[in-house]
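Figure S4 source data
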Amino acid sequence: MRYFSCQYFREVLQNFTMKNLALYSTVAVLLALADATYGLKKEDCEVCMTVVEKFANTLTPDVRSDTKKIEAEFRKFCKTSKNKENRFCYYLGGLEDSATGILGELSKPLSWSMPADKVCEKLKKKDSQICDLRYDKTIDLRTVDLKKLKVRDLRKILSDWDETCEGCIEKLDFIAKIEELKPQYMSHQEL
């Protein structure tokens, strides 16, 4: 029967951990490279990328260089936002009623002229809800049968037009209001 010394076990353990360390290091480097090459795509974070691009295009060179000015401009930008873009502004702290504020995570990268996809990656690390926002599907009023839509969708059509339906109770009331306003909001070619 052969006896193994403590020194032998130490050497085996050291060799085992050195091999594992090298393997784990290689895997970590490969994952980091994969993450860098496969960054966020527009469809992965569509609202964030759209809003950041739209906002960045409104900035003048003197505003772009100052993070405080960028934050002030973003707050102004958010006052006119609607729907998902308004929710994005809420998450970042661009609205007065926002519960949190991570505007610095937007303003600093924009002051460095960082592209929208990279800005959104940084924002996603701070708040994953930011990339969960998706735009609603648009309803083609030329082809859709309004009777088959839900009341929620009919209300959304009116909301998109900045219209209300006072006294509307039934689904048919909403449909009548949309039919009444359709010529006003759609060009003659679309009708």
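Figure S5 source data
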Amino acid sequence: MSKYGTIPSSSAPPPEGSSPLDFISRAKARGASALATRRPWRELADPRALSVPRGFTDAYRRARANLAHFASNYAILVLGVIFLSLLWHPVSLLVFLACMVAWLFLYFLRDGPLVLFGRAFGEGVVLAVLSAITLVLLLLTGATANIITSLLVGLLFVLLHAVLHRAADSVDEEAGRW
């Protein structure tokens, strides 16, 4: 049976003899699609969209909607804050970069669930395990106070922005995925 004209499944193993260039082009396409979920930075940084919520319910609704809407942007911001704080700790920076490579291959650049030893792991499990491993490895490098401080600063910024940014009406539907 010929497979001519069929679209290969992304979960299928690469064909025999596939070159590293094929892998790079697939990774580039996946990276582009992952970055497609990122919202425009102008939308995130629009000062006209900032206001104090009317109450706890409004703050919760805004936070929930904005965490879903700007999830990729928030992740990039927190990772950027941690990266900048590690510039003065070269060993921690190297561990962080190695963890980022693991994040790229195990989380950002894969299409389906991660399969290890015949068992499939969902996105939430992979996210939790990678976060824990990254945090433990970075804490073992001796930059504990620096990492925790930068993580808290990044998370505080994200939370403040999520609560103070007025969510658009179309954003409320996205909050359901969280």
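The longest strand covers residues 114-116. Confidence is low (pLDDT under 50) at residues 174-178.
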